[in-house]
Every structure is written in structure tokens, then in C-alpha cells.
Amino acid sequence: MPEHTPDISETGRCTECNGADSLLATLVGSGVEVCFANPGTSEMHFVSALDRIPGMRGVLCLFEGVATGAADGYARMTGKPACTLLHLGPGFANGMANLHNARKGSSPVVNIVGDHATYHVRFDAPLTSNVEGFAEAISHWVRRPRSSRTVAVDAAEAVRAARMSPGQVATLILPADTAWLPAERPAPALEIPGPAPVFPDAVEAAARALTNGKKTAILMRGSVLHGEGLNAAGCVAAKTGATLFCDTFTTRMRSGAGAPVVERLPYRGKHVLARLDEFEQLLLVGGEPPVSFFAYPGQESWLTPPHCAILTLAHPAEDGNTALLDLAAAVSASPDCVLYPLDPPALPGDGPLTAEAAMRTVAALLPDDAVIADEGITSSLPHANMLATAAPHDYLSLTGGAIGSILPLSTGAAVGAPDRKVVCLVGDGSAMYTVQALWTQARENLDVVTVVYANRSYAVLNHELKLVRAASTGDKALSLLDLHDPALDWVRIAEGMGVEAVRAETTKSFADALRSALSAKGPRLIEAVI
């Protein structure tokens, strides 16, 4: 095949393109600036186009689950999509778990999935698969271009689909010949509609409910947890006596000093029911009523008490931020409402390191405007309330429950917010799912401090084994939840991927290691033996 050299205008848009050129130029023109990639043969023309079409940063990931998780983290911090570059059906399947998390978190993501050339599919080559079936299982929008001349238009529509409120997963399946054959010029960016406005009736109904004397809980999800509506919600609560809640796991929440008091719902369903039992009304902003993470014998799945009426201020695709501002005005809430003060906890005394002491240390030393990405689960979740009076920060967590998201998520967050320190809290079991993210952090010199809680166990599953009333908790069963024999050596694992690392077994050594990591630039890892 002859070498192809497109005509590139001064604006960076090609005028004589193949499909890959027109695709890449369209993505850049539509505001997509980063590609988290794990390419193969079918994607080589896209890879080649990176040298010809300016404006796209390519970030190599050594596993597709890192690419998709990084795209999720990037979207959470920027509000706009990155693209992923994945290799046929198996490559897409490798990335599906973290696309599930992105979908549950309403993160905008554009997947570019290479496939066999259109004429090659009939031969059923080894990598032939039902790519559409994989994509449709996890994407809101899926398309396969009919020819190289429709690639650009399809790409523009993929970006628009991803950016539809509150955020969607869009997947464009790119047959190899549609990438190398001649194409039309890049397509212009399409207009992205904003979130739907909330009807005034919904604001009026919420205002009446908040002033009817009944005890009210307000459950918030989505962009209101870090947007301009968050402070308005705090002022509404201060005026009416309502209590603000968020889910156990949130896509992104503004937290720490200067944020309003928002209580995290407990993880266990029975504890959610107990906490909400005192409320007579539940007002939803950006989400649905809470449900149990799993079904458990003898326990409820629906977690709103029967006596608690459910009202909706804003649905997920609606403008919850403006609705909260309007609600604050409707109840005559003062703009000077109660916010968390800056009052980080004191450092713990010296002694053996515990999960509680580790989180206390993180909260005490956290710098201003950091980003915390948390998948410590049993080690971090019980102590996350210590962050409430820490320095102002954004808090990201595991939205879809598919563990192994947080190392990639912190990677993407660092790409999307390069001027902010990212602190990643992760259990050793979770970290092994996508450990390759450390290599990408080293390669890109990303400013991420990773704390690995090394308890040598899938600790949460030891609890689950009992809660589901499994018949056996003997040695064979427990061995499947244990990470000893051999124990993971996180210092050597990290250093083998180019990340400087230390091990901490006491509170003092952990504090010293964290101070050092926070004062430096670039990726660091601390193995916190608890």
C-alpha cells in the first residue's frame, strides 16, 4: 500500500484524507484532545495519523482496562470525553469492566474500536468476533461506518452522543479498510445540547415539601456534587433543616473545608434503612432512590422506608445545579450557610500502622485542591469522614462496583488535571486488577501518589461470605480470599514499572513517606502494611 500523506491546512485539518485522518481531525475539532490507547494491527492507520494530525495526545496503556478507566477519570475531571483506542472485540472486552464503571458514573467516553476490513470478516479469522454485541452491552451509542467517507460524520456524532447529558459511553467500530481508504474532509463539530431544564412545578413542589414541617432527606447525585448547586443545597439544608446525603460511591464530589455538610449513605443496605428511618420525605436531585448493592437473604433490596415519601427535583439528564439555585431562592435560603471548617485531624501517635491511622494521616497532610481517588473499600470507607474537614479537594470513587478502576481512574484524573496532586487509595487486591496503570503513570510522569493498603486479603469478601449465609467458611473457601503465600511486594512491583516506592509499617514511617511523596512531582507509591 503506498504511503499516504494528507494535505494539512494551517488550522490542522486535513483536506486530502484517508478515513483515519478524517476521524482524528474530526475528534480534535470536536474537542477530544487525549487518546488512551492499546492498539493492534487494525488500528495502525489511526496510530500513524497521530503524527500528521496535530492536537491529539496519545497515552499508551498496557491493558485495555487501564485505557477505559483512565478515560473515565479524565472525563470526571474535565467534563469532556477522551477517546480510547481498542483492538477488535477481545480488546474491547478487556476494557468492559471499567466502561461499566464509566457508564454508572455518567462519564462521557468515546471508544474507537478497530475491526477487520469489511471484506475480511467473511473468512472468520482468529480475532473475528461480535464486536457490536460486546459494544451494545455497555454503550449508550454504537455505530459501524458504512465506508471511509462516512467516518468523519460518524465520529462527530459519537462525540455528541458521549456528551449528551449527563454523559454517555459512545463506541465507534472502525473497519480497517475504512481507515485506510480515501475519505471526505473532517466533519465539523456538532452542537451539544445542555441538560434539560427542570420544570418550575418541580421546584415549587420541592419548596412546599421542604416547608411542610416533615423531616426531609435530600439525596444528590451527579454534577450537583461538585457544581454550583452544591453550596445552594447546603444553604437549603441550613434554612429548612433538611439533611444532605450522597451515595456511598460518587462519581465526583467537592469535599473538605469550604464544602457543605453532605453525609455519605452507609454501604450496607440494612444500615441505609436504619439511617433513613427517621425521615418522612426523600428529595432526589440527579438520581434514583437507593437500592442495596447486592441481594442478601432476609434483607431488603429497596432502601427507602415505606413511610418515607419520594419526590424528585431533578432527573439525571436535567439541570440539577440550576434547580438547586432556584430552590434556594424559593425557600429564601441565605447564601451564608454552614460549611465545613478547615480543621484537619491531628496526626496519630506512633505505633503499628492501621487503616484508621493511614486515613487520619492522609486527611492531616492533604494539600489544597488535591484529588482523592478512593478504592480502599474496607480500609478507607469506614474512615472517609475524616476528610470532611481536611483541605479542599475533589473525591472520586468506585461508581459501578467493578473493582480495579482506581489506578486507571487516578491516571486519567492526573492527565485531565495536571496542576493538581492526585492521591490514590487502593486495596492490594483491587490494585492487582490494573497494576499496569503504574507504568503509564511513570511514562507520562503523572503527579499521582498511590497508597496501597496491604492487608494481604480480599477483606470485603470475607465479610460477604458470612452475609450471604454461604454454607462453608472453611480453609478451602477462605484460601480464595487470601493474598498470602506468596505475599505481594508492592515496592518491587512499583519499582519494576518505574515508580519510586517505599514500604511503611508504622504511623511515623507512613507520615514521613506521605510528606515526601506529596512534596515531590511525579508518581510515587507507598505500601501501607496494615
Write the layout of secondary structure elements.
Blueprint: E1 17-18, H1 19-29, E2 34-37, H2 44-49, E3 57-60, H3 64-78, E4 83-87, H4 88-94, H5 96-104, E5 109-115, H6 131-138, E6 141-143, H7 151-162, E7 169-175, H8 176-180, E8 182-183, H9 200-210, E9 216-220, H10 229-240, E10 243-246, E11 253-255, E12 263-264, H11 269-276, E13 281-285, E14 309-314, H12 320-330, H13 355-365, E15 370-375, E16 393-397, H14 406-416, E17 422-427, H15 428-431, H16 437-444, E18 448-454, H17 459-467, H18 475-479, H19 490-496, E19 500-504, H20 507-519, E20 524-529
Parallel strand pairs: 2-3, 2-4, 4-5, 5-7, 6-7, 9-10, 9-13, 10-12, 13-14, 15-16, 15-17, 17-18, 18-20, 19-20
Antiparallel strand pairs: 1-8, 11-16
Summary of the model, kept short:
The chain is of the alpha/beta class and 530 residues long. It contains 20 helices and 20 strands.
Describe this structure in words.
It holds the Pfam family TPP_enzyme_N. One of its GO terms (molecular function) is thiamine pyrophosphate binding. The chain is an alpha/beta fold and 530 residues long. It folds into three domains: 17-183, 3-Layer(aba) Sandwich (Rossmann fold), CATH 3.40.50.970; 200-330, TPP-binding domain (Rossmann fold); 355-529, Rossmann fold. The protein has 20 helices and 20 strands. The chain has a seven-stranded mixed sheet with strand order 11-16-15-17-18-20-19, sandwiched between helices. It has a six-stranded parallel sheet with strand order 3-2-4-5-7-6, with helices on both faces. Strands 12-10-9-13-14 form a five-stranded parallel sheet. α10 runs parallel beside α12. The radius of gyration is 24 Å and the shape is globular. The termini are far apart. The mean pLDDT is 94.
